[in-house]
Amino acid sequence: MQTLCAERDYRRHILYHYNRYAYFYDLMEFLRRGTRRKAMLLSDWRPGERILDLCTGTGELALTFAARGASVVGTDIARGMLKRAITKAPALRPNWVEMDATALAFADNSFEISLLSLALHHMPIAVQLRVLRELQRVTTRRIVIIEPYTPANPRLFALWAVVASVIDESEYMHEWVRQDFISTCRTADLNVKAVYDTPLRVHRIILCDPGSKDSGNEIGAVAQPSFELAHHSLPQLVQSEAK
Ligand SMILES: C[S@@+](CC[C@H](N)C(=O)[O-])C[C@H]1O[C@@H](n2cnc3c(N)ncnc32)[C@H](O)[C@@H]1O
């Protein structure tokens, strides 16, 4: 019952916030541009591969790929955000679809590459898991997740959550900074291959492959990761990095 209420409240907040403030979202795009370029490189996208940009918002990440010739579908539940996306670069013709990320209307294995940028930290963990499982189901080769950077040192969690909440509208920031996200990915059957911090440590890029599926493709890193994931959880790795 509590979970259902949390999910209802989360959706209400998302729709209220992103439909109302969609017009202002791109004002902070200067902070995200470098991250999007890095995500594009790390995705290892190859011509001909289909891309899903889940929770696409105003479509900037989808358009980064479309500008290089990728066939992209961008989905979101907030119509206000999609309306902003539609006004941009119509010649690139990505497909914009209003859809809840927890129940995707795509067949299994519809996309080679899926992107999920800056959305999970807005969600209760039960919703995150449903979204990640949907990504696992529809993707054959690589999943690229972007989320805000979080510190390694647990003593900084409370302070970080307060500071981050000022610049980020997420209601779940206090939980997000403490979350072992690598474990969340594993619970959703995703294999986390590498985690990269962006310059200035604004964002973190997490590269996964869709777990138990046998796509026959190994992820080859195109840059030095902040830390490689072998047998460690994210907090362990961050702690060892901080030493
Ligand atoms: C912070 S914005 C990020 C937008 C974009 N991905 C980016 O990188 O700029 C979060 C987006 O996630 C969308 N979102 C949140 N929960 C969702 C859900 N369950 N299904 C689809 N979209 C969702 C919101 O509507 C919002 O547009």
Question: Which percent bin holds the helix content?
Answer: 40-55%
CATH class: Alpha Beta
> What is the strand content?
15-25%
Number of domains: 1
Q: Give me the side-by-side strand order of the main sheet.
A: 3-2-1-4-5-7-6-8
Q: Architecture in CATH?
A: 3-Layer(aba) Sandwich
N- to C-terminal distance: 42 Å
Bound molecules: S-adenosylmethionine
Number of H- or I-type helical stretches: 9
Q: pLDDT below 50 for ≥5 consecutive residues: which ranges?
A: 215-223, 227-243
Number of beta strands: 8
Mean pLDDT over the residues: 85
* CATH superfamily membership: Vaccinia Virus protein VP39
Q: What is the molecular shape?
A: globular
**Structural class by SSE content:** alpha/beta
- What pattern of helices and strands is seen along the backbone? HHEHEHEEHEHHHEEEH
Gyration radius over CA = 17 Å
CATH topology title: Rossmann fold
Largest sheet: 8 strands, mixed
